């Protein structure tokens, strides 16, 4: 392997290690267990959403609605338990149903109505942003809140549900690993195995690589594309469940950066180990990178308005590793 090959394959991993080392030296407390917990918590939600984006990238699509699906699921879970006084199982099922329905609608618009994926999912994003605010007239959901009709919401989040976002597991250090990280690891392993080692997953890659050839080979291309958006919707709803469990309320403003962070993680995944394609392992590493970057900038008291700039710069570097250095962008 040439030096260039090593740079393409391992450059981003070296960049991640260097970033961690820099923040450990420059930011007081970055190397502490408390900082690790914050990174893990942010990585879990971003990573789950990014894995959903990865599924759509595999078939040559793109889902801009994941952030809105996640916040809609968060608001639905909050509404079910706080306003309707339902249990955690009902809340979780409602969130997953929302993810499936949104995924099916996105897939139907893209596959059968021939609406470009960016436009279809952008429209869904705005639709959900408005829809999730209608039941409470734009208010966040919390125990004791006054509803638009004057009634008081007396329900509360169940302890079992809150444990999904708040409980931590001992791992060498007491209370180090949040349960949400375990959820992320399980989902990442499932989607990795699904994409890499099942016929369905390999056919999804084939559809994304050359849709016309896959269709001529007899593959049900439309079904694969719709399933990709269903997977994205379900993963986004799981992210919303974890977010609601972490916050313990339905905060309408809490998901503002979910889309950007998840997309950044999924696209950064292209550069990990020189994959140059959407993949679950790279996406997980990308989520860790975004989490480390944001936590480090926060602990260095970097102005909030610089964080998106830095994320964008890192994303550009990652795409350079993927396409320019490897020559993948040449036609």
Automatic annotation (TrEMBL):
<feature type="transmembrane region" description="Helical">
    <location>
        <begin position="257"/>
        <end position="273"/>
    </location>
</feature>
<feature type="transmembrane region" description="Helical">
    <location>
        <begin position="118"/>
        <end position="135"/>
    </location>
</feature>
<dbReference type="Pfam" id="PF02653">
    <property type="entry name" value="BPD_transp_2"/>
</dbReference>
<feature type="transmembrane region" description="Helical">
    <location>
        <begin position="64"/>
        <end position="82"/>
    </location>
</feature>
<keyword id="KW-1133">Transmembrane helix</keyword>
<keyword id="KW-1003">Cell membrane</keyword>
<feature type="transmembrane region" description="Helical">
    <location>
        <begin position="6"/>
        <end position="25"/>
    </location>
</feature>
<feature type="transmembrane region" description="Helical">
    <location>
        <begin position="226"/>
        <end position="245"/>
    </location>
</feature>
<feature type="transmembrane region" description="Helical">
    <location>
        <begin position="89"/>
        <end position="112"/>
    </location>
</feature>
<dbReference type="InterPro" id="IPR001851">
    <property type="entry name" value="ABC_transp_permease"/>
</dbReference>
<keyword id="KW-0812">Transmembrane</keyword>
<feature type="transmembrane region" description="Helical">
    <location>
        <begin position="176"/>
        <end position="195"/>
    </location>
</feature>
<dbReference type="GO" id="GO:0005886">
    <property type="term" value="C:plasma membrane"/>
</dbReference>
<keyword id="KW-0472">Membrane</keyword>
<feature type="transmembrane region" description="Helical">
    <location>
        <begin position="279"/>
        <end position="297"/>
    </location>
</feature>
<feature type="transmembrane region" description="Helical">
    <location>
        <begin position="309"/>
        <end position="327"/>
    </location>
</feature>
<feature type="transmembrane region" description="Helical">
    <location>
        <begin position="37"/>
        <end position="58"/>
    </location>
</feature>
<protein>
    <submittedName>
        <fullName>Inner-membrane translocator</fullName>
    </submittedName>
</protein>
<dbReference type="GO" id="GO:0022857">
    <property type="term" value="F:transmembrane transporter activity"/>
</dbReference>
